[in-house]
Structure formats: structure tokens, C-alpha cells
Amino acid sequence: LDVGGELSWRDMVFVRGGLKSLFLPEREETFTAGGGAKYEITAANVISFDFAHQEFGKFGGIQTLAVGMTF
After folding, report:
1. Phi-psi bin for 58: left (phi > 0), alpha (psi -120 to 50), beta?
2. Other CB atoms closer than 10 Å to residue 55's CB: what's the count?
3. Residue 66: left (phi > 0), alpha (psi -120 to 50), or beta?
4. Taken in order 11, 12, 15, 16, is the CA torsion positive or negative?
5. Most buried of 26, 34, 47, 56, CB within 10 angstroms?
6. Which alpha helices (H) appear in 1-71, and where do they start and end?
7. Residue 18: how many CB atoms within 10 A of its CB?
8. How far apart are CA 52 and CA 7, in angstroms?
9. Local confidence pLDDT in tens for the 71 residues of the chain
10. How far is residue 65 CA from its own chain's centroid?
């Protein structure tokens, strides 16, 4: 069972959090948290930034950064 949520402000700034693999005794993935932003350059061009932190058992904390653009 995975549980998570996202809050957004004006569809531009996002905060996310969640729990993965609930109720599994030997789970590796646990808490995740992150955020992001997107900026509309023109009506058709949007640039986005996303960051996430995930607790991953033996590997400790893992960070992910993504940058995207639609055109």
C-alpha cells in the first residue's frame, strides 16, 4: 500500500510527500518528500523543476532532480 499527497499553489509551486510499501515487514522504500515548480514562458512553452528525497533502506537517502521543458 502506498499513500501520498500533493499541495499546489496556483499550479506553479508543488509540495509532495508520501509513504511507500506500508505494512511490509522488510520494506526498503519508506518516506518520500519533494517539491517542484513550473513556469510558463509562453502559452506553449513551460519549464519545470522537480526535486525529491527518498529514504531507501540500505542506500540511505536518495535525491532526484529533474528539469523539463514542453514546447
Report:
1. alpha
2. 16
3. beta
4. positive
5. 34
6. none
7. 18
8. 14
9. 889 999 999 999 999 999 988 888 888 888 899 999 999 999 889 999 999 999 888 888 999 999 999 98
10. 9
* CA proximity to 31, closest of 54, 52, 5: 54
Q: Please tell me the predicted confidence (pLDDT) of residue 8.
A: 96
Computed on alpha carbons and rounded to an integer, the radius of gyration of the chain in Å comes to 15
Q: How far is CA 63 from CA 9, 44, 60, in A?
A: 23, 30, 10
Report the C-alpha gap between 71 and 39 in whole angstroms: 13
Report pLDDT for 9: 96
- For 10, which DSSP code? T
3-class SS of residue 58: helix
Is the pTM for the entire model greater than 0.85?
A: no
